[in-house]
Amino acid sequence: MSMSMVHPSVHPIEAPPLTDHAIAIPRHTLKDTQGMPGTLGGFLLRFLQFSFAIVSLSVMASTSDFPSVTAFRYLVAAVSLQSLWSLSLAVADIYAILVRRGYRNIRVVRLFSIGDGITSTLTFSAACASAGITVLIGNDLNDCAQNHCSRFETATAMAFMSWFAASPSFILNFWSLASK
Amino acid sequence: MSMSMVHPSVHPIEAPPLTDHAIAIPRHTLKDTQGMPGTLGGFLLRFLQFSFAIVSLSVMASTSDFPSVTAFRYLVAAVSLQSLWSLSLAVADIYAILVRRGYRNIRVVRLFSIGDGITSTLTFSAACASAGITVLIGNDLNDCAQNHCSRFETATAMAFMSWFAASPSFILNFWSLASK
Q: Which UniProt keywords apply (chains A, B) (predicted)?
């Protein structure tokens, strides 16, 4: 047949691997980097964000007097939102890994990027406010005897760790959006 | 001459304007957007950042008891750094506007972007920590009679405004780096 002359059946480089079902859409696609949504690195980042946020939430909620300080109530709200957001995206990453497709659509990555930006900014601001209060109680007032200083410090540190794990997700998504 | 046939002397569209001395370097150049370093928008952003930071610094330093709270000392340090950084880049912008050249070099924009990221993160964290303390004094403890609540609030608000003016600079530089 003449067709086989024009399109030979042997493509040693361009042939798609048999185990990979992913079909790249030609327009509006993004490169697949570890840490991006739908990759194992991305799932690990989400898992870390979720774990640190949930530990921060539990430790802060275990103190009886956190509702008396506005910054600690704000921290509880912020890490709750962060843990819900990270859990949702961790589930989305697991799904993407199982069906072997990445999130390469511009609109989806833009949504993830905006959500990451909002939740990580909230978590960071709450962690900073709590750190200000914790340092005030512990160092400036020397009033740790009456307060749960170590629990406040642990919750604040875990919120900072959650923000630290959320930053790569945001920066990667933002960078891939800009360099589309 | 045959040269004038190949390169005619009349270029109605591509001719460089006589008043503009800027020569675009072909490789490693960036687009000129308002708000980027070297533009009037960029200078206005730097001026706003510097003004808000210096007002925040002055108001906080005018209170006699700010050194007793760690978060307020940190705010003074952060807005000092922010005002120095913004002043330097405002001067650089004025120079670029006067000689009519933009900062299109990748390395310079990367340096500006990293500096913006560091100073704006420091200013934001200091503003959040101060806001936590201010809300603690004003709302949770109701102790405004003994403290300079309004000055603390003004300094915190000005630091937030300075961060708000610094964000567009950082996002524009980061975006133009990624989409180079």
A: Cell membrane, Membrane, Transmembrane, Transmembrane helix
In a domain, A90, yes or no: yes
Q: Mutate which of A106, A121, A125, A160 to disrupt the B interface (most B C-beta within 10 Å)?
A: A125
Is residue A7 situated within a structural domain? no
Query: Using the beta-carbon criterion (under 8 Å), do B129 and A129 form an inter-chain contact?
Result: yes
Segment A23-38, tens digit of pLDDT: 444 444 556 677 788 8
Q: Evaluate whether residue B80 is within a structural domain.
A: yes
Contacts of B175 in chain A (CB under 8 A): 174, 178
Contacts with B132 from chain A: Cβ below 8 Å = 70-71, 128-130, 132-133
Confidence of residue B32 (pLDDT cuts 50, 70, 90): low
For residue A128, being part of any structural domain is answered with yes
Count: domains in chain B: 1
Where are the alpha helices (H) located in chain A, listed in sequence order?
Answer: 3-6, 40-61, 70-98, 106-135, 149-178
Task: Report the predicted TM-score, pTM, of the whole model to 2 decimal places.
Answer: 0.79
Percent of chain B whose predicted confidence (pLDDT) is above 90: 49
ipTM: 0.76
Mutate to test the interface with B, among A30, A136, A172 (most CBs of B within 10 A): A136
